[in-house]
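Mods, move this if it's the wrong board.
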Amino acid sequence: MATFDIAGLGRQLHAARSEWRRAQNREQEPAGREFPSRDAVARIVEQLKGALFPLRLGPHDLRPESEDIFVAHELDAALQALHQQIGLELRHVARRTGSVPTPEQSGATALEAARSFADALPGIRRMLDSDVLAAFHGDPAARSVDEVLLCYPGVLAMIHHRLAHVLYGLELPLLARMVSELAHAQTGIDIHPGARIGAGFFIDHGTGVVIGETAVIGEQVRLYQAVTLGAKRFPSDADGRPKKGLARHPIVEDGVVIYAGATILGRVTLGRGAVIGGNVWVTTDVPAGAHITQATARESAAGHESPRAAGG
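Not the wrong board. Structure tokens:
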């Protein structure tokens, strides 16, 4: 059997942890776990997916006559666990900011947040129904809505995003990011939980799509793989660090289509019904109904004008 210097490695890792905690002014760690658990969050999301779509994403042997009982059980288990994870995030934030709420105050805030999240679930289901239909109608290769729900990575990413966005709105950014990153790891689609996305959103293929925190996307928008809705620049604070919370990502109005590899940067607006061609780089507003291709984008850059409709 191989031997290792476990004691020596342990001392070195202890030293590394101590250096980090001193540098971050965190020598006094809490007595118990302070952060939400990624494993617990993953389990909660799986339970919520089953509760939202029991006969498609629930257990393989679930029968229609048992559907309501199963949903009630999964909802109760998921929401009880989420309540605990919310409490952990709230305690972490309180400790970091120096506020000291009483256990009663902290518990009441966590319960209120968990109930608000629960109240949002029927609306999430309806939004996801619109996303599934958009994928089915938008992809000629789709044979059924069941295929779309079970197989399409863009739909999986949107299930996670719709859940994460509610958590983000409840000022639970750590839990929200955990939920979104679970989908990112599985699909290669990176949607920040802060992004506002309207009904009927379809990401076809999906790998490499990036949607930033302050992006605003209207209804019936379609994206293809490797599209980026990103920031053009990051204003800095007095310490040279990027300022947080500024609106820095695109606004995409209703009915826009963005083809593979397009990069849209900055707080620009893509007007209603615009079509952005593949591999186009856009940093200025696009008029409603415009068709932007590589050729029109090059002309715009050369003339320092806003992109115009192809052929117009």
